[in-house]
From TrEMBL:
GO terms for cellular component: nucleus. Pfam families: Myb_DNA-binding. It comes from Lactuca saligna (Willowleaf lettuce). Keywords: DNA-binding, Nucleus, Repeat, Transcription, Transcription regulation. This is Uncharacterized protein. The lineage of its organism: Eukaryota, Viridiplantae, Streptophyta, Embryophyta, Tracheophyta. Its main location: nucleus. SUPFAM superfamilies: Homeodomain-like (SSF46689).
Amino acid sequence: MVAMTGWRMHEQEWRKGPWTPMEDNLLIEYVRMHGEGRWSSVANSSGLKRSGKSCRLRWVNYLRPGLKKGQLTPQEKGIIIELHALLGNKWSTIARYLPGRTDNEIKNYWRTNFKKKGTPSQNQEKKKHKVAFRHNQQQQQQQQTMNNNYVLPHVEENNQRMIFESPEAKIEETTVSEQGYNQTVMAQDVASWWDTVSEDGLWSGFFWNQDNEKYPNEFRIEQSFSF
DNA sequence: AACAAGTCCAACCGCATCAGA
DNA sequence: ATCTGATGCGGTTGGACTTGT
């Protein structure tokens, strides 16, 4: 209740609905000048008639430099599935391990593909490609107007291996044997997806080790990609 | 060609938590 | 210790778009 007071103060005045390119530019300019954060002052400083909450969401989910658009890769899907099996609906936490992807995107992916029965049909996959293509075109136009000075956090590339690090979970590189992977943690509706991805050869391994005596609440992952 | 149904995703909402006064 | 505003998160919705009939 209390938490909403600030947001609702000028609720009648806030614009809602889809963002226009002009609004996007105003927000980009604001962030460029003031940095991320202090969203509640965006309206005053930039002239945007959007709530701070709306501005933050727009920035985080759409305007933020480094965002990937388009279809999730099999690797990314695998990470989502693994982490969801481990963490549940902690979309923002899962998103931290997928640089350039947003919690909203991951949430949408999960709901679309696994919240209901069955796996996506081939037609659905075709549709996804079309949508992804549309987004890529839009994003490329968007990116051209922006000065990308940001560095993706917590990810390094090291001899064809992505090392995931989390400030919260202290995830670090490790060497876990394939036998250590426990497929039973996967939901049943995910199993068919696993078969598909394994067959196409793009997925080369993603192993978990929860036998961590020292830090029982932590987990370690090894992710190998074929670039 | 027209309509219905399904899919996707941007954006909103409400609540929880954090931080500063 | 309490209050208040700011921020973050997860759930939900609306509408554009695609596909099927």
